[in-house]
Specification:
about 325 residues, binds S-adenosylmethionine, about 40% helix, 2 domains, DNA polymerase, domain 1, single chain, alpha/beta, seven-stranded mixed sheet, Rossmann fold
Amino acid sequence: MQVDGVQSHIPVLPEETIEYAMPWTCGAMRVIDGTVGYGGHSSLILKKNPEALLLGIDRDRGALASSKERLAFAGNRVQLTHGNFSTLAERAAEIGWIKVDSILLDIGVSSPQIDTPERGFSFRFDAPLDMRMDRGSRLSAADIVNTWSGEELTRIFREYGEIREAKKLANAILREREVEPVTTCGKLAEICEKVLGKPGRRTGPPAPTLPFQALRIDVTSELDELEKALESAVNLLNPGGRLSVISFHSLEDRIVKRFFQEMAVSCKCPPGYPVCICNWQPKLEILTKKPVTASADELAVNSRSACAKLRSAKRINN
Ligand SMILES: C[S@@+](CC[C@H](N)C(=O)[O-])C[C@H]1O[C@@H](n2cnc3c(N)ncnc32)[C@H](O)[C@@H]1O
């Protein structure tokens, strides 16, 4: 999709996200958008609070170039940097920010990434199998599919795709790659269909959905990066500051939910201790008891919001 000639992406849960990530309409707030992407959420944040300063991070240089154009209206209130959100504290320190007031992560794949065949994320195109968000990084999905052992492939499909027939799928890939390397999304999708496809079934996601998700999680180290980012984010926030995360599949959402719960408990002593000896101070107050999901109106105009779940929490104490 193009907006004003700039490659674009419709931000999911726009109003809900801004309500949590930028509840203030004035005041010189410091905000980190760790997945600035195409600048959708960031532009709403900067417009809602004309005094807010924003540091936008993304590991995709193409996305950063688009957000630079989309956020140009905010002038020097915006700084953009190429990097991984797991290093957000270091990126903030580089511009002299020791504490910030809001951190947003909208994790997952953007529309331009998924809709550009050469990026190799989607089984809808018969393009080279790639899936790197940072095209300078070493390992692509094709490297994994063609060089990793059957056990490693089985583990990826089981852990990151929660696929019951993980071993069967891994074995089918091993057989195919003995004949010739599996280098395209189309070839891999065909193998997934053969192993996991249910002839005649009309409901549920297409057979390649979960294997492609599993490979993407491994190529991008999404879950590890998310865990590191959450730890670092909570220490970077000022009291009253917000941490908001939008995730798109249950593995990510589970990590966010558990992290928030762990940071919100008032005591970490083993159950049954007569008095508290842990001295644990809760660091977060959970603002979204249940994840916020898209309204019917949003679903009607942006089908990609169907899987989005927003969780937000407020930093307490020091
Ligand atoms: C769903 S898009 C974000 C869209 C953005 N909120 C907007 O409104 O335009 C996700 C973005 O996160 C980036 N991304 C994913 N994992 C990342 C990571 N570990 N570090 C930095 N950026 C990451 C992707 O490159 C992509 O541009």
